[in-house]
TrEMBL record:
Annotated CDD domains: GGDEF
An annotated Gene Ontology molecular function: diguanylate cyclase activity
GO biological process, alphabetically ordered: cell adhesion involved in single-species biofilm formation; negative regulation of bacterial-type flagellum-dependent cell motility
Name of the protein: GGDEF domain-containing protein
Gene Ontology terms: cellular component: plasma membrane
Any Pfam family: GGDEF
Residue ranges annotated for the GGDEF domain, each copy included: 309-444
């Protein structure tokens, strides 16, 4: 029996045909093989059913099918061709499925099995194993290990027999690399996703690819590409919904997969509705980003000028932040930025706080007095001082502090929003030149 032909057929069916067609086909094949003694073939069909369930997010069902497949492979004689590799592959698949439901400890246990360790030199197994190692490293909050594993993975040639199957895993790694701001890795993965989506020729793959591009352009502040890709995503999503409607009319989905695909379609619509919001939030501090500032700031400026109300703009940054990054590394710096974002969110019920760039933050106040803004500044500074030990016990440059510059006036008709931001920035650096850890007010 040429199992390689069956494996090729499985990959083609699972990742290029409709989910229902695949499910029906391999259920029939499994029923037919149950009448004879070919356990390897039954295992392959169980694997195909598990992969189909896995692809649409039914991870519990996928794990059941993968275990059935593993039992089939283990039941045959040790001399059976491909037996060891199939057992290793199926064990990794089970580990992958557990990682998707955040059972990382259990996933690690499967990777440590003897069957997997013996097959590490197999290029196909090695490729798949590195994918999973990258996923687990991120889930276990080990960014350096994540980068190391993915860089090793990207150096390997793509495996033609599994490239379609790896699409969802590469999407996951792409999102993780974006979250860690590893944009060079993200771009390489994006090229791989583009290649896979082209080969699969499926509308859902093209939608997923467009979502990844939107996320990449948002994260790298490429606003023009972001807008163009966002429009492309909307067009693809509409086309995808039309195709799903045609499939549903032909009644080619099983009841549970119909329900799941409906849920996925609803989630896709929600993701599109929320993309604007996601694009405006800084992932590290959970504060609005520069894009949102550029929308909110000018509107509040015009509102204050028309209503003759005070508009306050506070610029702040962390004193000696570069020294801390150089001394302790960016992970420590990121923790402090995250902490500052948390403090600003906590105390900004009556203000708009956002991350401008790097360690620079901007807060907008509407109809507030100088005294109220000064009290806000003192509160932020005081709370941060009490949280220093969260970052590190021994600070070589003294207590971590922030400098703050404020302008607060009724906007004049000769002024612009940019004037306000420039003056607040001037106030910030005027204070830093005289003595850091200052609150400095200036007039426009």
């Amino acid at each position: 029996m040429n199992y390689q032909e069956e494996i090729g057929l499985i990959n083609q069916m699972v990742f290029q045909q409709s989910d229902q067609d695949t499910f029906d086909y391999f259920k029939k094949r499994l029923a037919d093989t149950s009448k004879d003694s070919d356990a390897i073939l039954r295992g392959l069909f169980c694997h195909a059913l598990g992969t189909t369930a896995y692809k649409v997010g039914l991870y519990g069902r996928a794990i059941d099918y993968f275990f059935n497949s593993l039992d089939c492979y283990q039941s045959v004689d040790n001399s059976t061709p491909y037996r060891a590799d199939l057992i290793s592959w199926e064990t990794i698949e089970i580990a992958f499925a557990h990682s998707y439901i955040n059972q990382t400890k259990l996933s690690r246990e499967f990777l440590e099995r003897e069957s997997v360790q013996k097959s590490i030199e197999n290029k196909k197994i090695q490729h798949h194993l590195l994918l999973l190692e990258g996923v687990l490293a991120y889930k276990e909050d080990k960014p350096a290990l994540f980068v190391s594993k993915i860089q090793t993975l990207l150096e390997l040639p793509l495996n033609p027999s599994t490239i379609l199957r790896d699409f969802n895993e590469f999407i996951l790694l792409f999102r993780y690399s974006i979250a860690l701001e590893e944009y060079e890795i993200s771009l390489k993965i994006l090229d791989i996703l583009t290649s896979i989506a082209t080969q699969s020729n499926r509308i859902d793959s093209q939608c997923q690819l467009a979502e990844c591009k939107v996320l990449y352009y948002k994260s790298t502040n490429d606003i023009i590409s972001y807008k163009n890709t966002f429009l492309e995503l909307i067009s693809l999503t509409n086309l995808k919904e039309k195709e799903y409607k045609k499939m549903k009319e032909k009644n080619i989905y099983l009841t549970d997969i119909i329900f799941h695909q409906y849920e996925q379609k609803v989630k896709t619509n929600k993701r599109i509705a929320n993309l604007k919001e996601i694009a405006e939030i800084d992932s590290l501090t959970k504060l609005p980003n520069r894009y949102r500032i550029n929308q909110y700031g000018p509107s509040q400026f015009l509102k204050a000028r028309k209503g003759q109300k005070n508009l306050g703009v506070l610029m702040l940054d962390i004193d000696n932040f570069k020294l801390y990054n150089d001394q302790f590394g960016h992970l420590i710096g990121d923790k402090y930025l995250s902490l500052l974002g948390k403090v600003l969110r906590k105390h900004s019920d009556n203000a708009f706080a956002a991350r401008l760039s790097g360690d620079e933050f901007l807060v907008i106040f509407y109809d507030q007095t100088n005294e109220q803004i000064k009290e806000y500044c003192k509160t932020i500074s005081s709370e941060l001082k009490n949280c220093d030990q969260i970052i590190i016990d021994d600070l070589p440059f003294g207590t971590l502090t922030i400098s703050q510059g404020v302008v607060n006036e009724i906007p004049d008709y000769d002024m612009t929003w940019e004037d306000y931001v420039r003056r607040a920035d001037y106030a910030l650096y005027k204070g830093k030149r005289s003595n850091k850890n200052q609150i400095t007010f200036v007039n426009v």
